[in-house]
Amino acid sequence: MDAGISPANETVVIDTSVGRLGALICYDLNFMEVFKALRGQRPDIIFFPSMFRGGLRARYLALECACYVVVSNQGSSQLINPVGRVLNKADARQESFPMLPQYLEETINLNYGVYHLDDNMRVMKKLRNKYAGRIRFENAQAEAVFLLESLDPKLSIERVAKEFKLEASLDYYDRARARAKALLNHRGTTYDR
């Protein structure tokens, strides 16, 4: 900023034929305000091209925004799923060009949803029985969320979620924030998160 470079004043997520895409660069990964702005726009994929590697922050971005994150940075590239698991990673080898991102290829399924474990666990057995072989379930128990993907192109996860009244993790957090804000405001405490 001392050199006259100004930060953007908004985040943008665009609708494309492959899904809702967002991006952030460099040290944007250090600011929860950017995560919050992206999360509010519900992207399917966030791209993070940067010289800054990001480390665990990139995995947290995926978990926080409940979407895929594609990282391309100095010496490595990786694909992270919506519950923070690295699906594929390519690191530079000593004999290669260490400053160039490494190429990787992976097929991802955008017919997915991330749901909070709490109230949704009550229907998991029925859901699994009804759609056995047509859905994939990935539990991120420590984070209290799970990823649900359709393995059947004719089965929409959105339809499954409506049928079983599943609450998306981001909706759960928004509801919890609203309740906390109302409670704190009632007590005369300001809430700015």
Which geometry do the CA atoms define?
Answer: globular
CATH topology of the largest domain: Sulfite Reductase Hemoprotein, domain 1
Structural class: alpha+beta
Which CATH-level-2 architecture of the largest domain? 2-Layer Sandwich
Explain what the structure shows.
The chain has 193 residues and is of the alpha+beta class. It folds into two domains: 79 residues, 2-Layer Sandwich (Sulfite Reductase Hemoprotein, domain 1), CATH 3.30.413; 75 residues. The strands form two sheets. Strands 1-2-3-4-5-6 form a six-stranded mixed beta sheet, covered by helices on one side. A three-stranded antiparallel beta sheet has the order 7-9-8. Helix 2 links the parallel strand 3 and strand 4. The radius of gyration is 19 Å and the shape is globular. The mean pLDDT is 87.
